[in-house]
Amino acid sequence: MTAVTAINLDFADGIDRKTLKRLTDRFLKVNAVRVERARAALATRQQVVLDLLPLIFHLNHPSLPGYLHHDCPYGIAHYQPDGETLAAAQRQARSFRMRSAGRRPPDIQSLFVMGSPGTLGHSVASDLDVWLCHQPDLESRGIERLERKAEAVSRWAETLGLELHVFVFSASEFREGRQRVEVNGENCGSAQHYLLLDEFYRTGIYLAGCYPLWWLVPSDQEADYDLLADQLRDFRFIRADQYIDLGSVPAIPPAEFLGAGVWQLYKGIDAPWKSLLKLLLIECYARTREEGPLSLEFKARVYRGMTAPDRLDPYVMLYQRLEKWLQSLDATERLDLVRQSLYLKTGIPLTRLERVSRSWQSALLTELVEGWGWDRRRIGVLDDRQRWRAGDVQALRRIIVSELTHSYRFLSRLARTHAVKAAIRPEDMSLLGRKLYAAFQRKAGKVELINPNIAPTLAEENLSFHHQSSHPSGNVPGQGWLLYRDLETPSDAFWQPVIRRSSSLVEMLVWCHCNGLLTRATRLNLRAGDSALSLGGLRGMIEDLQSHLPVPEAPATREILLEESRPLRVLLFVNVAVDPQAPLTEKGLHKLSGRHDSLGFSGGRENLVLTLDQVILNSWHEVSVHRYEVGDTLIQCLKNLLAARVAAPDRPPVLTVHCHDAGHAGSIERRLQILFQDVQRVFFVGDRGPHPLRYIIQMERRYFVLQFHDGQPGFVALESWSALLDHLQKPQPGYVPIVLDRHALGEDPALNAVCQASQPDNIQVFFHIRDDRARVWVVDEHGSLSHWEQPFFSRRHLLAPVLRFLANVSERRQLRRTLAEAGGELEITCAEVVRRGADWVAERRLVTNDELPIDGFELQAVGVQEGDQPVRFDIFCEEQEFTALEYGDQLIPAVVHYVNSRRREGGGYPLYLTDLHLPHDLDPQVYQHDLQTSQYLHYRIRLEAELNQALGVSAPFG
Fold this sequence. Notes:
Blueprint lengths: L16 H24 L6 H13 L23 H10 L15 E7 L13 E7 L5 H20 L4 E7 H5 L18 H10 L1 E5 L1 E2 L12 H10 L8 E2 L10 H14 L3 H16 L6 H10 L10 H15 L3 H15 L13 H13 L3 H8 L6 H28 L8 H15 L21 E6 L13 E5 L14 E3 L2 H10 L8 E5 L7 H14 L9 H4 L5 E8 L7 H6 L24 E7 L4 E6 L4 H13 L8 E6 L5 H19 L10 E6 L2 E8 L2 E7 L2 H8 L9 E3 L8 H9 L4 E9 L2 E7 L5 E7 L3 H22 L10 E10 L2 E7 L13 E6 L7 E6 L2 E3 L1 H4 L3 H12 L10 E5 L15 H19 L7
Parallel strand pairs: 2-3, 5-6, 7-10, 11-14, 15-18, 19-22, 24-27
Antiparallel strand pairs: 1-2, 1-4, 7-8, 8-9, 11-12, 12-13, 15-16, 16-17, 19-20, 20-21, 22-23, 24-25, 25-26
Helix pairs in contact: 2-3, 6-10, 8-9, 8-15, 8-16, 9-11, 9-12, 9-15, 11-12, 17-18, 27-28
């Protein structure tokens, strides 16, 4: 082999054009080998992409791929296609003919490929990253068209099975850090500049156009790069239009380490081997700054006359730098991970290759592996990744995550120690952080994805699901589940290793599904023990997951990650491995009634929903599982789902309910599916919300009121009918209507009619007469509901007192307001609740106070509040005053005695309060300027009940 002499450029003593030409030719010689290696690594049908890429951008010919517009910029400086390229173009399009563009100035300066092509690290899964550098004066419209053409060329390459990314920018933009890019799947955005340039100079393959000016500045004079570059141009040692200047690679600024480290973590989610190597290199750069970047070492070797491609291979040089550094630290475990990462990055299975068919890559990799001292067994384990099991992958993933975390913490400490501001835009940092959070962050219920491209597949031929009560040893505690593989007999579980343990069968199934263990071909075995699960139920749940829970193959997009995460799909599994009818069958309750509501079944009104397993796939592609089996499971689940919906009220998740094995499974599914749809519809009507309302659900003999407070859902559990009515009377911050679930309060259809007829900004009185009793409801200006029942004598005795009372309260409220606020008096309306066929409706009744005069006495009460003591009342009847201070506990008897003494014979009708005054500090901690009508009614109902009880008359009661 002919020896190659070193080239020494001494700018102080003078340089000549011949030396510069020799230097350029030397770099081109190294480049030619890389081009051929990159081409040979592609499949035969993909090689045309590399062959035609310069011609496609040089001509903008309608017959060539990527053509979109006749006015798209074209022309690469100094490019002349050779015969082989023109022949490839004619094979691609028979109508293609080369036409001269005349003396038109080219719009494109240079075209490069960078990254792993042509290196040891290139594999069948590698992509092509192309840098297209346009002229700095190209107008924005031309740049946009060039970008669209680049996208079209990428789509053409995709049809050939090749992933191609073309980045369009100018050299001046790059030098100034103004390239118009954002963080996405293939672009690091603002995360790094000099590190990216360092990688470009040591891996870049020149395809066409201007040569890199960086070649002509010796590595030991890199600090004076700008001065020397100007000298080369100004003194015309080179023609300025023959070289492109992307800038120098000085010592990497510490500001880049944090952003670049986070970017490599981002990439490491889907490509761990490559990112581990790069992340360790970043740490190495940060710890050994005196050695300089690898690109300078590459350039120095070329200057010294080293042109052997294996010695200049970027991945070999990267490994050698990491090996030297880690050996100095005696970090043998980290070095072993580096070796394993490099081996797996290449994708070359050495144990399965015949020596006669070995390529330059396999020969170079064999040389490295022999130097590491690996035996054939160690290599065979790595080559047989398709046979790795979940445990193998989990163990390796823990090592990978540990290493990624170690490097990131080091870089974070470095940034804090040196008070370095990361060279990355805050929005890009936030975006990368969200991606890392979605991939690596552990949180309750989140399903861990254990195989980020570590093994080709984790699919199992046979899986056995065992309830702990069925374990052959008989001493496995708890009520959880165990997962095994390939059990020939159930007794084999005694000695076979457990793949996974979980207290939730659904969590175990989702973990298997998301990590690819379960396929449609997987054989299933079940040992249910004392659970109520059947093999059919197990298969049904797996089919539900495969049909309704897609496992995303691509990471979440930039646009999605910029938004708050939101649920995309929700699967609810009801009563998994539980029979809700077992206790009912023992009691015979299912035979005692025709009630078929799953939340109030049979005469005992039993709730058939005992457990819920909720599976959520969100927009960040996280999957989580939550089990509800203690307390009010359904309401807790519903509340959490509503909370997740708040993030995107206009984009509801796809929700499905599944129930297998359990009795009445079909009716349970339908009941919950409708319930969840109804609740979401009313709170988020019109795809907006959450709207203020109170939603009532009845389960068993209990009631639950769902309501949003400060944008977050909550619920109140009420144990009885009277407790529900007390709760509905409570004050509200604004108008909050009451909405009944379609199965709630079926025994009281009149109340449903009242709730449906209520409207804001008025006071509505509803009444229903049944024989000698009447029910009265008042819905006030904020939707609070007051209710009582009383004897019915006549409509005059029923309505006149309450209308007079409400008019007095309304009048007092109006008089308190300023003149500026006047004019907004609330209307008081009446409606009678009647039955029309099968429906109950509220029909308006036009009545006024004047039409319904009151006979007898008008009672008034004035409340007094002292500190945090209960409100006490003074009562006025005609001109007689009865004060609590004077009468104490005998106040009510004294009033009743006076009324009886003033009544004529036969006056046995009830007493009514027609006016009531309340203090504005009912709440000792808050002054209420405007009390709600329901607050007045609350005390009116209580006082009337006490008065009429003392009078011996059947009293109104709430």
